[in-house]
Amino acid sequence: AGIHMRVVRENSIFRLTWDIFILVLIFASCTLIPFQLAFQHVVLRLSTAIVYIIDLFFLIDIFLNFFTSYRYQGTEVTDKNKIAAHYLKTFFAIDLIANLPIDILFLGSQDILIYNLSVVLILRLNRLLRIVRLYVIFRRREIQSWINPGYLRIIKFLTTVTIINHWIGCTWFLTAFIEGFPQNCWAVRAGIKDADTLAQYIRSLYWTITTMTTVGYGDIIPIRAAEYVFSIFVMLLGASIFAFIVGNIASLFSNLDSAKVIHWNRI
User: Fold this and answer.
1) Three-state SS letters, the chain
2) Engineering a disulfide at 215: which of 33, 74, 76, 210 sits with its beta carbon 3.0 to 4.6 angstroms away?
3) Average pLDDT of the segment spanning 54-72
């Protein structure tokens, strides 16, 4: 209680290093937890330890956010009371929900299943809300002058596409798993019901990418009504996302070139 915490400047080397570290942990959380749910199905000690260690670092991040300066109308705010009030009014609730270890209440009851899925693994999905923190960090860095914001936006788009593809691939495999792999499901027809985990994931991700990019080779196709509905959703989502991202990336590259021309003209 007697510790005096100094304000962490948002453009400091420490905060930049910490933000990069948190970005890595966000990516790890958003890939590991859905993978555990879709392909491992059981609560493993190692993966559980990793999840809780990541939780600890995000708890530290929540604490630091109460002391990290922010910009308001172009001016950096360093008053502790204003910083705390701003964080409480913006992203504190999301960060708190994303870090609640609700699953720990059921660690002793791992046999409880919902649609063949462990309730412990299901309750870990709240941590996927950490993707919001990813956008907050990128937004913070885009307004800094130490790097062209166009490069950060490209990295943000590519990271977002990677995570979304991963989520959809996991969900695609779950459409067959939660019903016990009926004979007319896509996984049985593709011959991966009893394959190893890596093969199952690669085939699921393969279908996701071919569907999202509207390539559709036709070697893995939906069979049941639920699979058709999910495929329609993925195709619409893929068309929208890639149209948005391709347009934005093209615009970003053109802006990068124009910014370079303006810079050299000024010199």
Assistant:
1) CCCCCCCECCCCHHHHHHHHHHHHHHHHHHHHHHHHHHHHCCCCHHHHHHHHHHHHHHHHHHHHHCCECEEECCEEECCHHHHHHHHHHCCHHHHHHHCCCHHHHHHHHCCCEECCEEHHHHHHHHHHHHHHHHHHHHHHHHCCCCCCHHHHHHHHHHHHHHHHHHHHHHHHHHHHHCCCCCCCCHHHHCCCCCCCHHHHHHHHHHHHHHHHCCCCCCCCCCCCHHHHHHHHHHHHHHHHHHHHHHHHHHHHHHHHHHHHHHHHHHC
2) 210
3) 94
